[in-house]
Specification:
Blueprint: E1 2-14, H1 20-28, E2 32-45, E3 50-54, H2 61-68, E4 76-81, H3 91-94, E5 97-101, H4 113-123, H5 128-142, H6 157-169, E6 175-179, H7 187-204, E7 207-211, H8 215-221, E8 224-229, E9 232-238, H9 239-246, E10 249-256, H10 262-265, E11 270-275, E12 278-284, H11 288-298, E13 301-307, H12 311-324
Parallel strand pairs: 3-7, 3-8, 5-6, 6-7
Antiparallel strand pairs: 1-2, 1-4, 8-9, 10-12, 10-13, 11-12
The structure holds adenosine-5'-triphosphate (ATP) and magnesium ion.
Adenosine-5'-triphosphate binds near residues 11, 55, 58, 60 and 63.
Length: about 325
């Protein structure tokens, strides 16, 4: 459904030099520099997949999403989505996708959201009955009935984001390109939006590619992760593959009944946190059960939890390891 082959994007930017003389000179002899934002990336995505596209600032995530949604011409390589070449921007293609950017609004700020919705209905030629049905459904799901008639500029960020979702989904797209959909939202709203994305994916078997700097988004929503750094893909696989490959430890979290010392615990593994009665100990993955048993045997333990490392930490390890290569 999405096929990307050796896709690259080089931005050509006008280089400005300091000083008046240089400015005048540059009017006649423009100097350009190139920024390789995306370098030779390839992947394919099936219908219904939930893919997290993650990487540090400037990694090339937004650039890739813009190429896939047809806003940008690739410099080289090929992208094919639903059998279309995105940058040709055919109507029949644009009607099946939606690009939503948390940082940029598609709503008209001086108008109530409902006006943007009906404008989108006309642009996308959504049939009236479908429009009504989807609008009612989304309004209900996102709980925004009361704000649709208020001027958008007066809405809270969370209310506005919900309206952005409705505006982007009225034409019932098969593919959602979500660029930081939860940015700036409070914890409760982030959770709502995540739930909503999952529900939409299930209900319509829609394909979702999302970028986010919040690892909770990725953990909650995505089955597959594509990591990108300096324009290149450094990991593509499932969450469990990533854990298996890069997290070589597990965490033991005991709560003790009787005092212990940090020194004693260091015999079990790497003591990362210790504040009696709680501790956090890292142990090699393959020795987890042995080390847990040892802990239970040697100490008076009230409770113990065995957990996977946090996603943030695993992601950091992947980036660090790949950088060294
Ligand atoms: N229109 C543009 N003209 C020139 N350079 C650009 C343009 N847009 C992006 N870039 C550059 O391309 C690189 C990739 O940018 P991009 O916006 O794709 O990163 P990103 O992964 O989305 O980062 P972030 O997490 O900060 O959103 C950066 O070095 C950026 O400065
Ligand atoms: Mg971006």
């Amino acid at each position: 459904m999405i096929q990307v082959d050796h896709l690259s994007k080089i931005y050509r930017v006008h280089k400005k030099e300091e000083g008046l003389k240089a400015s005048i000179k540059s009017l006649f002899h423009r100097k350009y520099t190139s920024i390789e934002a995306v370098k030779d990336i390839s992947f394919s995505i099936e219908q219904g997949e939930l893919v997290g596209f993650i990487g540090p600032n400037g990694a090339g995530k937004t650039t890739t999403l813009k190429m896939l949604s047809g806003l940008l011409f690739p410099t080289s390589g090929k992208a094919e989505v639903l059998g279309f070449t995105p940058h040709q921007r055919k109507d029949s293609y644009l009607k099946q996708i939606s690009l939503m950017m948390g940082q940029r609004s598609q709503l008209w700020f001086d108008l109530p959201a409902i006006e943007t919705f009906s404008l989108n209905r006309d642009i996308y030629e959504v049939e009236e009955t479908q429009y009504r049905t989807v609008l009612n459904e989304l309004t209900e799901l996102l709980d925004v009935k009361d704000v649709l008639n208020q001027q958008v500029r007066n809405l809270s960020l969370g209310q506005r984001m919900k309206c952005e979702f409705i505006a982007g989904l009225l034409h019932n797209p098969k593919i959602l390109f979500l660029d930081e959909p939860t940015i700036g939202l409070d914890i409760a709203m982030q959770k709502n939006v995540r739930e909503f994305i999952k529900t939409y994916n299930k209900k319509y078997n829609a394909t979702v590619i999302l970028t986010s700097h919040y690892m909770d988004d990725v953990k909650e929503i995505c089955k597959r992760i594509i990591m990108i750094d300096h324009g290149s893909i450094i990991f593509d696989g499932s969450m469990s593959e990533m854990i298996k490959e890069y997290a070589n430890h597990k965490m033991l979290k005991p709560i003790f009944n009787a005092p212990v010392t940090r020194h004693e615990l260091e015999k079990i593994g790497e003591v990362v946190e210790f504040e009696y009665p709680k501790a956090l100990i890292h142990v090699p993955r393959e020795q987890t059960s042995k080390k847990a048993a040892e802990l239970l045997e040697k100490f008076d333990v009230e409770d113990i939890e065995i957990a996977e490392p946090e996603l943030e930490e695993i992601v950091r390890v992947v980036f660090e390891k790949k950088k060294k290569i």
